[in-house]
Amino acid sequence: MVSEHLTSSEGRPLALDEASRARERQFWLSLYEQMLTIRLFEEQVNELYMSAKMPGLAHLYSGEEAVAVGVCAALRRDDYITSTHRGHGHCLAKGAAVDRMFAELLGKQPGYCRGKGGSMHIADQESGNLGANAIVGGSAGIATGAALSCKRRGSGQVVVCFFGDGALGQGLLYEAMNMAALWQLPVIYVCENNLYNEYTPNRETTAGDMLARPRAFGIHTEEVDGQDVRAVYAAAVRLVERARRGEGPAYLQCNTYRFYGHHVGDIQRSYYRSREEEEWWKAQRDPLKLLGSWLREQGLAEDSHFAEIERRVRAMIEAGVRFALEAPYPDPQEVAQHVYA
Amino acid sequence: MVSEHLTSSEGRPLALDEASRARERQFWLSLYEQMLTIRLFEEQVNELYMSAKMPGLAHLYSGEEAVAVGVCAALRRDDYITSTHRGHGHCLAKGAAVDRMFAELLGKQPGYCRGKGGSMHIADQESGNLGANAIVGGSAGIATGAALSCKRRGSGQVVVCFFGDGALGQGLLYEAMNMAALWQLPVIYVCENNLYNEYTPNRETTAGDMLARPRAFGIHTEEVDGQDVRAVYAAAVRLVERARRGEGPAYLQCNTYRFYGHHVGDIQRSYYRSREEEEWWKAQRDPLKLLGSWLREQGLAEDSHFAEIERRVRAMIEAGVRFALEAPYPDPQEVAQHVYA
Amino acid sequence: MSMPSASSAASAPQVPQAPEGWREITLGQAIREALAEEMRRDPRILLLGEDVAEAGNPFKVLSGLVEEFGPERVIDTPISEAGFTGIGVGLAMTGMRPVVDIMFGDFLTLAMDQIVNQAAKVHYMSGGKLKVPLVVRTTLGATRRSAAQHSQSLHAWFSHIPGLKVVLPSTPYDAKGLLKTAIRDDNPVLFFEDKMMYQLKGLVPEGEYTIPFGVADIKREGSDLTIVATSSMVQVALAAATELEQLGISAEVIDPRTTSPLDKQTLIESAKKTSRVIVVDEGYQSYGVTAEIAAVISEGAFYYLDAPVKRLGALDVPVPFSPVLEDLTVPTPAAVVEMAKTLCGRA
Amino acid sequence: MSMPSASSAASAPQVPQAPEGWREITLGQAIREALAEEMRRDPRILLLGEDVAEAGNPFKVLSGLVEEFGPERVIDTPISEAGFTGIGVGLAMTGMRPVVDIMFGDFLTLAMDQIVNQAAKVHYMSGGKLKVPLVVRTTLGATRRSAAQHSQSLHAWFSHIPGLKVVLPSTPYDAKGLLKTAIRDDNPVLFFEDKMMYQLKGLVPEGEYTIPFGVADIKREGSDLTIVATSSMVQVALAAATELEQLGISAEVIDPRTTSPLDKQTLIESAKKTSRVIVVDEGYQSYGVTAEIAAVISEGAFYYLDAPVKRLGALDVPVPFSPVLEDLTVPTPAAVVEMAKTLCGRA
Ligand SMILES: Cc1ncc(C[n+]2csc(CCOP(=O)(O)OP(=O)(O)O)c2C)c(N)n1
Ligand SMILES: Cc1ncc(C[n+]2csc(CCOP(=O)(O)OP(=O)(O)O)c2C)c(N)n1
Ligand SMILES: [Mg+2]
Ligand SMILES: [Mg+2]
User: Fold this and answer.
1) Ligand nearest to the Cα of B167, by number
2) Of C205, C235, C262, which one is at a domain's C-terminal end?
3) Do C170 and C145 form a contact (C-beta atoms < 8 A)?
4) Could you give the ipTM of this predicted complex?
5) Mean per-residue pLDDT, A85-108
6) Domains of chain C: total
């Protein structure tokens, strides 16, 4: 996927020949489709929660789709990611299938973790996903260690460590970044800055200049509009290539916003953020709308494309939910399996 | 002690009237005496170790005296410090007595901790010493909490958190600095950068720019020649006053060197640092020699002053050692005392 | 002061009307009341933790406190468990009385050094000069479908460490009285709240009261069998006892309330009386709290026991997400009843 | 393969000459040999920790390894226990086999989240797909005059956590064989070395051998009393057994070698044979390893015991610096002998 795609952010249509236009269309529509998959997946998760079909809680990624999709589009399938409590988007973007994810969320046996992990722990080795982590910042060491592994094995793989702005509060992150910088490891720390740590705005929890932090550890640092998948993708390609060439770690801050609550049960949000703020982001900064508009402006896609994609995605999601609802629970004896390898 | 002292670093004698000269002499000689006390205290500690009179190990502060003395001279007695495994200098500079420190080092009952703490845990509430800490970086939170306490109680106290360059590896430090900056706490983080973490040079353990780290958290940061007690003192006065005025935390890096091994048993050091390097520091950068020379150049002190001080300090140290050697061990039943308050 | 009737506290929801001078509140309210009353009494008390202020913590246990005491005393922190626990230690050493909130007990893993190497040891290492009057409030308990990193009951770790005290309230009455004692204690105290029990109702008296540490509470008297149960497992034991009554087995249910200090005497006395003991706790069974209690009773009541002391802890597996699996990991009334029947020769 | 004579291993220094095919080495050398041989065999093995390379770690256990394997495989880290343990987890999940060095067992407090919430749970949480073949080598044991933050024996904590294995070697033979097994195991293993035992000598065979986990070793056979002892306490138990022999009491000394998995069977069998049991371990006594072992034996051998199972752990106090106090906190041969005499009705 690491081909070069034009990423001019102005409205002006690109001057391309037909073959290039077709490639462009295909590429960006595939990213659009992934983002839409995440969006509709999350809609269903919320629905499953509201209708009491899903056990526990889930942290929805809606609104932040451009980050996971833009970054993962720059990765090979055998590159690694580590993910967070808000991890559905990362999973899907890295290549997990909707049906097995739903199954996991319902605690069913065909789920990615045989129902043992649930929303906060989906891992999928085949697509390079080392797992979501319910400890904020908890995977900073794991991602860095995976990068050391890639370097020692000379595999040419790179690792992306996704985390939220809240993880900047965890000392582990700095310990890991220090070693990544010392040893020039192929790891990219992707901070999804959605402005809040649960119910507290990050200006109350994060002193100084966020970006100065990784920089102080000698890490190449960039910041990008996390709602613009083209910008995210372009930055990710740069940083991934850098890492793959052995030029060391990087830090990419993606400024973004979650459209829903901290988790599905977080309905009353006005005490920590205003409805106007939420409306503004949804109206003005929706990553799907932004990419859709650009594709239309460029003449790369039109209504029929989007309608077709939506039909396809909805069908897949519906089938996935059905699959999961009908899937069996794990056998009771599985409770004592997999404690030890 | 927070009077204004001239700190012109050039050799040129200061133009002062007699009363000022007397004050200057007295002040700097008192700092000289404190540094010498630490130096000779540590000589005795080494001696006690070599002659198998001291249980366990100790980490000598010799060479770094200007840091503790320069910083603590800027503090009030009721200001707090937290200290490290290499803590004798901090203790003494903050006002602990030689005899009770020796007693502690020998595990004797009149020791500051009744023999329960030993070299790495001396605490002395009366002089504001919240304790040495044998966990590298372990007191970053404690110092920051003490600063929050000072602020809440409106006591006007400030806190100094001493730690070595090795503590930059500990995530806790960044967590604490973040909160100190957010809440504008009266705490000064004093990094004693002696170039080594045990047996590993810190260029192998510390990526990027050390000073950029506290700065990234929005903390006012300065660097100073840790062998020049006048420079350390001047910087400390500035930062302590700032903190006392409510202007928030600061970070002071003191570049220094330990003259002995990591601990008293670390005799073979050539695999990690050269004899030449050690000799250079001892010959060129000894804080006692540097202050002594300046005082002589200024005509503020002459041989007789230094001889008198040395006599006094040696007598005190000798008496202290004798006191400690003759002191009783704690009663066996003390083993189960003080587990709970 | 003690409960009007020990068993009525546990089964409070069935009590039609609270007796004179008593009110029915939830365990969450009991916690909040204890904090609010203590904070009114003593201005040195501060609360620190993630989302403790406006959000009132995710279990809403702290709602209203920031409104009453202001953000200077109810302090939202960054997500820095080690850092703000360390800050708690420093506050406690210098004249304040902090109550630190670790949102889920599983996150204690991040603050172990500050709790175990610092808070627990400062008093001893300083030869008795420094004190750390710190309360760490946190949670335990599974079955919330929160999976392996949000469901552990790690209180055994802290019970193992000299210098710490460990409190495990099982009713609103105990929660309020014990939390007040914890706040007034001059030592670091770990206070574990079962997150499934915040809605549990029970009676508390109108006025001021505290409950001393190290005093077990007999939640139900009985003669055939002793069930020692902690925290969440007290309700499980009481439910089992009710069932056992139907079978003609009279079970005594004892709640140690604090594992450190542990009221060995009361446990051993009960074992001597009944000759049969089951110990139930929601921590992992192996090397957990049930081991210590079983060992203490096995030794102390050795010559009175008719059968080995039986233990029922959580299954020794990471807590699985899937409800069908998770429910298998936690002791249930049915499991206690089965064990009791075997023990009493009724199986 | 087993030792030529179980008791000779423990008392190796007295053996005048090593039998054919066996060599006498120290426990420290045994560790180094195990690491070196395994690293030669498997290029995926890396060592990480503070001062592990040129310095060879403060106990000089690793001397020579960086010279043979280079700094790419023997890696000096910053003082970042959480960070490099996490890196170990990530290495292990992606095809490497890291051995992480935590200089003093007390510093495990800093890495608890990575060990307990990450390493221990990854395999289970991923439904068996990911594996964490990680060894954490660290120390335990007091009496080095190192005070409260450098003297703890915290192995009970890890024994409590499903997903972890816990190894406590007590002889050079066991250390070498068990460390090799640890390195080849596909799970996270905590490997605790008593820092006072690095100079202990004992016999090891010339060739390759490993020792399976979960198999207790009878260090000395006896018939009147069973002493279950771990790590540093094995030598204490053997010394006590020798004294007891003079008194006509025949003590069997059993070393579980791994507390997780625990060889319950062998412990219970011995207890059934001797009817009297003392459990000795250097961790804090309360809620420590002695509790689990005592509970297991009290239950499993209930009908065979003539007296309660006695426990002897470290005193429940932070380890004091002063030698006169510190020595009171650790079980001694004399204390074991006293307890044994009482237990056998000889006091
Ligand atoms: C170590 C730890 N502390 C606290 C929590 C509880 N918690 C879960 S998500 C969250 C906020 C995370 O904020 P951020 O990292 O910005 O991610 P976001 O939810 O905004 O995506 C908190 C405090 C946790 N899971 N782990
Ligand atoms: C958490 C922790 N890890 C490791 C150690 C072992 N240790 C003691 S001192 C030291 C080096 C400290 O270096 P630095 O902070 O620079 O202080 P210095 O000794 O140079 O004064 C180490 C690694 C420790 N005491 N605590
Ligand atoms: Mg966020
Ligand atoms: Mg240093």
Assistant:
1) 2
2) C205
3) no
4) 0.97
5) 98
6) 2
Tell me, yes or no, whether C28 and C159 share the same domain: yes
Contacting partners of chain D (3+ CB pairs under 8 A) = A, B, C
User: C273 and C186 in one domain?
Assistant: no
The overall pTM is greater than 0.90: yes
Q: Are D195 and D229 within one domain? A: no
Buried (b) or exposed (e) across C59-79, using 16+ Cβ within 10 A?
A: bebbeebbeebeeebbbbbbb
Contacts of A179 (CB under 8 A, 6+ apart): A144, A185, B207, D77, D78, D80, D83, D84, D87
Residue C7 domain-assigned (yes or no): no
* B contact test, residue of D79, D84, D104, D149 with most B CBs within 10 A: D79
Q: Which residues contact C345 (CB under 8 A, 6 or more apart)?
A: none
Cα separation, B67 vs B61, in Å, equals: 10
How high is the pLDDT of residue A274? 97
CATH code of the domain in which C142 resides: 3.40.50.970
Residue ending a domain, among D185, D205, D225, is D205
**Chains with ≥3 CB–CB distances under 8 Å to B:** A, C, D
| Per-residue DSSP letter, D170 | -
C:D CB pairs within 8 Å: 142
- Hey, what domains does chain A have and what are their CATH numbers? 17-96+124-328 (3.40.50.970)
Given the residues D123, D150, D155, D160, select the one marked as catalytic: D150
What does the pLDDT look like over D134-182, one tens digit per residue? 999 999 999 999 999 999 999 999 999 999 999 999 999 999 999 999 9
Is the same domain home to C201 and C221? no
Burial B162-176 (b: 16+ CB within 10 A, else e): bbbbbbbbbbbbbbb
CATH code of the domain in which D310 resides: 3.40.50.920
Q: Are the beta carbons of C276 and C226 closer than 8 angstroms? A: yes
C110 Rama sector, left if φ>0, alpha if ψ -120 to 50, beta otherwise? alpha
Q: What percent of chain D has pLDDT over 70?
A: 95
* Alpha-carbon gap: B203 to the closest alpha carbon of chain A (Å): 9
**Residue C2 within any structural domain of the chain:** no
C-alpha closest to that of C260 among C335, C341, C174, C155: C155
Please check whether residues C67 and C108 belong to one and the same domain. Answer: yes
Range of the domain at D39: 22-205
Verify whether the Cβ–Cβ distance B116 to D107 is below 8 Å: no
Contact between residue A228 and residue A66 where contact means Cβ atoms under 8 Å apart: yes
Residue C13 has pLDDT above 90, yes or no: no
Q: Are residues C135 and C261 in the same domain?
A: no
The string of pLDDT tens digits covering residues B168-184 is 999 999 999 999 999 99
| In a shared domain, residues C223 and C200 | no
Q: What is the mean pLDDT of chain C?
A: 95
What is the atom index within ligand 1 of the atom nearest the CA of A192?
A: 21
What is the average pLDDT across A216-240? 98
Residues D47, D180: one domain? Answer: yes
